[in-house]
Each structure stands twice: as structure tokens, then as C-alpha cells.
Amino acid sequence: MDFIYSFISPGFLSQILVGLSRTVILFIVASGLSLILGVLRIPNVFHGSLYMIGAFMSYTISVAFGGGDTGFWLALIGAPIGVALISLVIERGLFQYLYEREHLMLILFTFAISLVFGDLVKLVWGAEYKSVPVPQVFQGFVSLFGGLPFPKYNTFLLFMGPVVAFALWLLVTKTKMGKISQAAAVDREMVGAVGINVSWVFATVFVIGCLLAGLGGALVAPTVSVTLGMDHSLIMEGFLIVIIGGLGNIWGALLGALIFGLTQSLGILIWPQFGIVFPYCAVIVVLLIRPTGLLKSTW
Amino acid sequence: MVQSILGGKGRVWGYGGIIVLILLPLFLPRFYIYLTSLILLYGLFATSLNFALGYGGIYQFHHAVFYGVGAYGAALVITKTGLSPWLGFIVGPLASALLSFVMGLICIRLSKLYFGMLQISLGSLVWAVIYRWYGLTGGDDGIHGIPMPDIIATPNSAYYFTLIVTAASLFVIHRMIKSPFGSALQGVRDNAVRSEMIGVNVKRHQLAALVIAGFFAGVSGALFVVVDTTVFPDMLFWTFSMEVMIMCLLGGWFTFMGPMLGAALIVLLRTFISTFTVYWALFLGLILMFVIFFLPDGVLGFFQKKMKQKN
To answer: What ipTM score was computed for the predicted complex, to two decimals?
Structure first.
């Protein structure tokens, strides 16, 4: 009985909630990655750098407005927009000439950009840790399940996940833009043939995907220490999530993020030393059972 | 061997190069001998990747795992057991080959990008285990000051050991590429369906290529232990796999000596640029972008094309 009780113990439940808040961040970043991979077929390695830049920008904006509530909300809007602008410049300046290249070249090219971004962040923000203050509204804890303390900010994250998922679903399935991009994912030449400017469709999808990376960075900033190198671990997780979910499938990204976030947080509970091994094991199991991902990919 | 690489005058260049490499310790200071050793072993590592990726067309995205396992295998045999270090240099590469076989069996039924991603996932698993297993691998500190047998303990003797092993390995890899197996492998790369139709077992050829590539990556990892006497988990991190791909790309994918040239360029540029700025990654990124835009065949590939046009 003790064994069963340990599974519904407060520690276990709170670890699930922590895992779910992590899932939200992973989902927001991975859905952007999935969108770009699904429509443009670019495995975007510097997506992680954009996430990092989003977090650093959020720090700058937040500090510029005195670190209070206004600063936080402005950062939450401003950082993703800043990241989107950077990505627009890169797409128009570099990427639109490379769409026909093979995946290997694209991966290396996006890796090159991530190297450049990594050093530019070091130049602009320095190598020290930065911390973004949690806004007044979300400071402290709420008690769940009879006295279990849970950070208020994480409840905000749990709220943001479904909001972003719903907004993305609307964008992809209900707007003209989304429908065109879905068509372009299947056959870009045909879409061009009916008189649609595919180049700008791609640019828009790219910018929206990158905006999500920036949003993920801005949302995660108050919960972690913002630092160089936060891009490298995240991008790997993002790719694996997209792969196990099914390329280009937003619900797949959600499912993948859920698997990743939960195995990560519960793994730490089960075997602290090798907690980081569990998500990778989950990915391997999924890919052995369903080699092309859990849900239907757009390719 | 060199003739097919550089054309008619290749033999002269090749022998000249080998003689220069043998005489190098006579007139170069210690630091440059160390750098040349690094170039040789990175070059071997990049060549082994090129065998799978360039000649085999397999999306081997996380090749650094085999390099790291080779290095850790050798280092662990030397530090944790009382056995001869030479045994370690054999165990390391064999461990890489075995891991390569197991990972290959799991990944091989997927193709292209999915193959690469599953491979990265499995590789990250290996990295995570080594990174966290403090008791055995020293965790994120790695293992330092690994004792070497006296005969290869000085920089010069380590250099000669690296040179001999690298030259022998390159010779073997080159023979494999020129063998019927190598031709079949390139056939699989260019048209898997047609190769299957004429009776080539596609998966088995790819698996063999992966094991060979993994083995030689392990050899280069063991050489790193000889030259640097350290191992650390970053040797298995995925960014290092990207860096070695950059070496292949910079030198030229479909050329035999391209990866070696790329390794030399990267090591020399890194050393040179690091003397006046800490922003080496920035320069590497810019160089890489330039190469992808203007030299997609790499430096050696570019010159080969030029030479073909002339003839």
C-alpha cells in the first residue's frame, strides 16, 4: 500500500505539475520548430538561439521598466516581436536563397547562424547569469490538493499553454494564411502556379515559428537563470519532440512535449542522478514503435 | 592511394607530404607538433564520418558519440583496470564499433532525416549517461592526466604514433572505398532502389559502413587520449558532431582528402583567430555561411572542378 500511496503523494503530484509547466515551454518552442519544419522543411538549429535571445530581450525590457509588472508584460510582448524581426531579416536576407538545398546543408547553415548568434549574445549581454523578476501578481504560491505549495507563475504557464495551442490551431486551420501554408507544405509549385506568392507565405510562416521561440524564451525567463548555452540543450529537446510527434503536426508537438516534460520531471523523482536519461529513452521507445512519429506528419 | 586523389602529380605531392610530416618535429616547436597531431586525428575522425555520410549517403548526424566512446573506452581501461594501455587502444575502437552496430541496427530501418534524428537521440542518451555517471566517468569533469606508456609519452613520440595510426587507417579506408564493397556502397547512396534490384543488400551495406565509420571514429578518439591525455563529456556533445561535419563540408564531401584538409583549416583558423579574440564561434559561423553559399563542394572539391574544366 505504501508503494501505491507514494504515487499519489503530494511530491509526485507536484512533480507532475512541474513537468506540465515545462511541457508548456517545450510545446511553444517545439510547435514553432514543427511549423517551420513542416512547411519550409528547414531543420532550424538556431531556433534554440532565438529562444535564448527571447529570454535575454525579456531581461533587457524588464530591467528597462524597473523590473515591475509593466516591464514583465511589455517584455512578454516585446521580446517575441524583437525575435520575429530578427528572423524576418534572416529569412529575407539569407534563407530565401537556400530552400532548394538538401537537408544536410540547411542543418549546417542554421547551425552556422546559431554559432554567430551565440557569440553575438555574448557580445551584447555578456557571459554572466541574468535573472528576470517574477511579476508581483505571480509571486508566491498557491496551495493545491490540501496544502501543496505550487508557484503561482507556473499556474500562469499552465494557462498559457492551451491559449497558444488554441491560437495556433485557429491560425493554421481557420485562416487563409494557414490553409495556404498547409497547401504549400504539400506542393509548393502548385501553390505558386495558382498565383500565390509562395516566397512571402514561407517568410510569414518562418516569422511566426520564430516568434513562438521568442515567446517561449520570454515565458521561461522568470523561472530560470538566463544564460549562454540555454540554446544548446533546448534545441535538441525541440527536435526530438518534433520527431516523435510527427513532422509539422502541431498536436504532435503538444503530445511530444507532454511525453518529454513528464518523463523529465518524473525521471528526476525516480532516479535523480540519471533523470535526464529518461526523455531520451522515451523518444527511442516511441520511434521504435512508430518510426515516423506518433501523429501524421505533413511530409 | 594519393594518385587517385590529386591526379597525375598526386604521387609526388603525397610522398612529399609524408616526408614533410615525418621531418616536422625537427624544426617545429612543441605546440605546433601538438596542433599537427590534433589535425591528424581530427582529420581521421572527419574521414570516418565522410565514409558514412559522403560515400554511404547515411545521415550520420551524431558521429561524435563514437569518437567519445573510443576515447572513454581507452581512458577507462587505462585508469580503472590494471591492464596494459595498449589493450585500451584496442578496446576503445572496438567499443565504438560495437555501439555503432547496435545503434545502426536500431536506426537503419528509418531513412534520411528520421535516421539522423533517432541517431542523435540515441547518441544524446550515451552522452547523458557519461555526463551523469560520476562514479565511472568523472561526470562533467571528465578524466585528466591519463598515464601513457613511456614510448608514446612525449609530444614527439605521441605525434609519430598519431601519424602512423592515422596513415594506416586512411590507407585502409581508402582501400575500402576502392574495393567492390565501396563501389556498392556508393551505388546505394546514388540509387538505393536500383542497387536493391541488382542484388545489393542495401541495409547490410549501410550497416557495415556505419560499423567501419564508428570503428575509425573510435580510433581517432583513442588517439586524442594519447595526444591530450584527457577525456571529457563535450567530446560526445552534439555540437561537436556539427563541427566535424563542418570539417567535411569545408574540405569537400566527395573527395577523399577533403575532410583532412577541412580539419587542418579549422584547427589552424581556430588557433590563429583565438590569439586575438574570444569570439571564435562567430568567425566559424561566418566562414561556414560563406562556404555554403559560395563553395558548396568544399575547398578541395572546388579545385578538383577547376582542374577538370582545365583538362
So the answer is: 0.86
